[in-house]
Amino acid sequence: MPAFVVPARSGAHRVAAIALYRALLTQCSPAAFPLADDQRIVLRNIIRNKFRRNRHVHSTRLLKLSFTAGYELLDMLARASSSPATATCSDDAKESATQLVANLLASAPPHLTRSPTDPNAQPRGPKRLDPSPEACPPPSARTLAIRPLPATALGGTGVRRVPRLVSANTFPMLRLQKPQPRSLSRVLTDKIKQRQRRLDVRSEAADYWSVLAQDEDEWDRLLWEREGVSPADGDDMIIDEWPEAEGSWTDEPQRVVRIISAQLGVQRTRTEWTVKKMQNIVDREAELAKVEREARKVRREVARMGKKRMKDMEAILGTDSPDRQGAKPL
């Protein structure tokens, strides 16, 4: 076959592959091959799975190996067959071929022996990728929604560690553990960069563009005073009064400053609300930690008193004394 011809699109290749496939399955029939039903099913599954795995192979070398193995298996099944067409084979050849087939079935890997169309197999959907460590958890699993944790959800030693409220460049956060989660670092970085961009734009609008706009307004006023030219209608319009109702060049920079200031104000209000909620969580966690600490002290004291009581009873009864061994208790 020429190298530029794709085997899967070659008629001769397809006819040869389908003929070999059907011949192998025919040799696995109960009338042609003396095998148990479960072994015959396994052999058919091996043939079907191997052909399915090699249906996209285009390498001439690999195809030659596959066809050679297929025809050798076909000859082996024909020798082991008890049909009249193979009655000329000796009993030793039949027994040897049957033993080879049995060894093949015993050494076949599990992925070849199972049915390619298993009705009980779960449908293979799209592979679910693990979430990125920088991805934020769902709202129901975030810290502000699940804290404070109940005592049964502490895990580890069971000792509650009270979180600390800290400031990350004026943004509040709860320090729970180390190392800090990458998702929290990403969120803080994004918020800090966003606030810095807003401050830069507001500063540029107030300190740079507003100055240029004032100069433009002054230039328009000079043109009106000397030539009577309106800044709104162009150089061809001569007016007698200055158009106070018309907008000026400073309106747009001032509008940008107002919008960004409002955004920063909303962010500040939201930050204050977050700080109050986080502080409430810290206070409640501290109260629970204190209650749990007292409960642990009580349990330790009860256990200590129990051990002391047992020692006192042993000392009074003298069960540990060598002189009292084997004697009746007092």
TrEMBL record:
It comes from the Eukaryota. This is Complex 1 LYR protein domain-containing protein. Residues 107-142, 302-330 are annotated as: Disordered. Residues 17-76 form the Complex 1 LYR protein domain. Pfam families: Complex1_LYR. It comes from Lasiodiplodia theobromae. Residues 321-330 have a biased composition (Basic and acidic residues).
